[in-house]
Specification:
Length: 382
């Protein structure tokens, strides 16, 4: 919710403090860049010292980052806040490792879906709450980022207190380690030497490039082809969030039991592909609504199922590190994907953005299908 509160306000605040469009892009990109750099670090550190202290440290980092946003009065402080929050958010791999420690193979995808459902709820509830809090800032005659930033910091502080008093440790004693290296070459080697990890992690990273492009594509398509206002596009985002939450609450576990982790991920990718293609040929708003729901299905299925697959293949002694490598690649994909969609839009407008994203999804389906057709979910080291 803190992320959902802050991110929609960033563009407004950056413009107010004199940032250009390119500078705003760098501010937003710095978040994903920090995730790329620090996801393997947090993941491997959690293998060494435990999941709980890493999660608590990242929550404390979020508190500091959101407070930096709350009291930012120039572009430099906005940069600092996003960098701090990006470093803290890189602990998503540790959260996934926590779920992997706490679930068996049968329930792993369901556990990963709970993380996705929590994100979905935060992204549904956060933006409208941020708008209300920004209005409150105006009534109090303070900067528009003051009240939303403080509220986001309080939410992270509440989560930190919950973690301190309620969250148990899950790291198995047998994976205790004595050393630690900032460059976790072992986890990177395991990831790229294991064929199933390369294919599953590669498919997830490629899909993440398109999932990260959905928001700007919906804005561009809604504006250019359907003449939607900003508030109308926000309703589409809300609808997609509802679809994601519902899917991860009620469908993911059943889908993985029926089709397996990778099979369910492929089904989600096909739905995502259908959503991009369906939005292409018509100007009917009803069609765009259906396309948005299909994109939500793709978002709801792909991430938890393929993340669960990766967690099952990763050795327990390096589970956090391997999930960190995957999260690092996903963060890099979130930087590259929207950029590529933007170039395609500049060249061919809305059809270019939709077709380029559809082509990327086809690549991801191809990678995942190699696992499905192999008829197994694990392979020996290549």
């Amino acid at each position: 919710m803190g992320f959902g509160i802050v991110v929609p306000l960033l563009a407004f605040c950056a413009k107010q403090y004199g940032a250009s469009g390119a500078t705003l892009g760098l501010i937003l990109g710095s978040f994903s860049l920090m995730q790329f750099l620090f996801s393997p670090v947090w993941g491997r550190l959690s293998d060494r010292i435990g999941r709980r202290p890493v999660l608590m440290t990242s929550l404390l980092g979020n508190v500091i980052g959101f407070l930096a946003f709350a009291f930012a009065f120039n572009v430099t402080m906005l940069f600092a806040s996003r960098i701090l929050c990006g470093i803290a958010a890189a602990s998503i791999a540790t959260a996934q490792a926590y779920v992997a420690d706490s679930t068996d193979d049968t329930n792993r995808s369901k556990g990963m879906a709970i993380i996705g459902m929590a994100f979905g709820l935060g992204l549904v509830l956060g933006p409208p709450l941020g708008g209300v809090l920004s209005s409150l800032s105006a009534q109090l005659h303070v900067a528009p980022n003051r009240v939303p930033g403080v509220a986001a910091a309080l939410l992270s502080a509440s989560a930190l207190l919950l973690a301190f008093f309620v969250l148990p440790e899950t790291r198995p004693p047998r994976v205790a380690g004595t050393g630690f290296a900032w460059l976790d070459h072992e986890s990177w080697l395991i990831f790229f030497r294991t064929r199933s990890l390369r294919l599953g992690g590669g498919a997830l990273a490629v899909l993440m490039a398109t999932l990260a492009s959905i928001a700007p594509i919906l804005v561009l398509v809604g504006r250019d082809r359907y003449t939607l206002t900003a508030s109308q596009v926000s309703y589409l985002f809300g609808l997609m969030g509802v679809v994601v939450v519902a899917l991860q609450a009620f469908v993911v576990a059943r889908a993985t039991k029926r089709f397996g982790d990778v099979g369910a991920g492929v089904a989600g990718a096909i739905a995502l592909l259908a959503g991009f293609l369906l939005a292409l040929p018509t100007h009917q708003i009803a069609v765009l609504i259906v396309a948005t729901c299909l994109m939500g299905v793709g978002q709801g299925l792909c991430n938890p199922t393929l993340s669960a697959f990766i967690s099952k293949i990763a050795p327990s002694s390096h589970r956090g590190g391997v999930l960190g490598v995957s999260s690092s690649l996903n963060a890099l994909a979130r930087v590259i994907g929207p950029t590529l969609a933007g170039f395609a839009y500049d060249a061919l407008r809305a059809p270019g953005a939709l077709l380029s994203s559809a082509a990327v999804v086809v690549l991801a389906i191809g990678l995942a299908m190699r696992l499905v057709l192999a008829g197994r979910t694990a392979e020996s080291v290549a």
